[in-house]
Amino acid sequence: MSTDMSQPGSDQGSSKGFEQHDHAHCVSDGVAALVDYCAAERLKLTPVRQRVAEILLAEHRAMGAYEILDILREEGLGSQPPVAYRALDFLVKNGFAHKVERLNAFVACSHPGATHTPAFLICRSCNKVAEADTSPTKGDLGRAAAAAGFQIEQTVVELEGLCPTCVDAGPASGQA
Amino acid sequence: MSTDMSQPGSDQGSSKGFEQHDHAHCVSDGVAALVDYCAAERLKLTPVRQRVAEILLAEHRAMGAYEILDILREEGLGSQPPVAYRALDFLVKNGFAHKVERLNAFVACSHPGATHTPAFLICRSCNKVAEADTSPTKGDLGRAAAAAGFQIEQTVVELEGLCPTCVDAGPASGQA
DNA sequence: GTCTCGCTGTTATTGTATAACATCACTTTG
DNA sequence: CAAAGTGATGTTATACAATAACAGCGAGAC
Ligand SMILES: [Zn+2]
Ligand SMILES: [Zn+2]
Ligand SMILES: [Zn+2]
Ligand SMILES: [Zn+2]
């Protein structure tokens, strides 16, 4: 690996997911947040919903609904597409997962609970997806849109390329 | 290029498509540019390819591949999905159309020929799509990505909301 | 108890996209 | 001209993504 771990924890937040981190926390913290949220909001955290959250949290990459469904099926939690889509809809609606339009796939949210406008950095080599925060109304584009009278309601910002690790590995090699 | 806006007061070129304009030019200029480009690049501008370009240019909205295919079928230009997808791939690859990931649909490019990084403003009410230009490497997000060592290769920026016309029409009414 | 509401299970269908292969047309070259 | 090569086309079939529709079950309300 020898990832140089530049800026240890310093400026992080914008590219969390590409950096080395204690990944066990990603899952446990995420699930804990989901449990708390559902308790507070009187929402039913069913086995399927929790399991899908765990599945997504376990990987910093976007997973297709059918890929998730395959896992659910193996575990006897469901076998038909609506099972997966309903759980994903629940998670997305409540801010614990996002859909990556570019990939027609879903990824766990990095800052669960709070409503926000995510942006994604997608590595085409190792398929990891990092979530960053955007301020769509700021920036040239947001200003131009506002000036033109366009009223932004939702944004899709997805950047595809090579993550630091895959860049270091060299353009030709890539990594699985 | 530098198409005269028949409507004054909008100095923005970033939201072209929402503004009033001589729409006949959108089609004729676009096709002309495509003809020139293909001649210069020694590419075959086949009937299907040109017709698909015309279809897209005729509307400032994203069209699904199967919607385009329906038109081609009526005109005897093709009846199977690959016909439409191949033409669309050709146009996208050469910069005369873009895919709007959010809609799984395609839209004609506003500045054909030149390689650029488009952003889209999508009106959820009237379904018009305007193309704006972005500088992904600038802005907070681009800077954050660069700082994190992420190498951007392609960007998807799609803003959904209400266009000026539909905002003026009032939130409740909308317009077809 | 029983009523209600939301989650589940399932069937079926629609929509989006591509693989694979044979054929055809044009162009290059001998 | 003929042969070979290249790339577009036509077609079949299939994979992948998403939703509609409806029956049944279960926990909480009253
Ligand atoms: Zn992690
Ligand atoms: Zn990578
Ligand atoms: Zn126009
Ligand atoms: Zn509109």
From TrEMBL, chains A, B:
Coiled coil: none annotated. Transmembrane segments: none annotated. The keyword NADP does not apply. Pfam families: FUR. Binds 1 zinc ion per subunit. GO terms for biological process: negative regulation of DNA-templated transcription; regulation of secondary metabolite biosynthetic process. The keyword Transcription applies. Zn(2+) binds at residues 123, 126, 163, 166. Residues 1-20 are annotated as: Disordered. Keywords: DNA-binding, Metal-binding, Repressor, Transcription, Transcription regulation, Zinc. Gene3D superfamilies: 3.30.1490.190, Winged helix-like DNA-binding domain superfamily/Winged helix DNA-binding domain. Residues 1-17 have a biased composition (Polar residues). GO terms for molecular function: DNA-binding transcription factor activity; transcription cis-regulatory region binding; zinc ion binding. Its cofactor is Zn(2+). GO terms for cellular component: cytosol. Belongs to the Fur family. This is Zinc uptake regulation protein. It comes from Thalassovita autumnalis. The lineage of its organism: Bacteria, Pseudomonadati, Pseudomonadota, Alphaproteobacteria, Rhodobacterales.
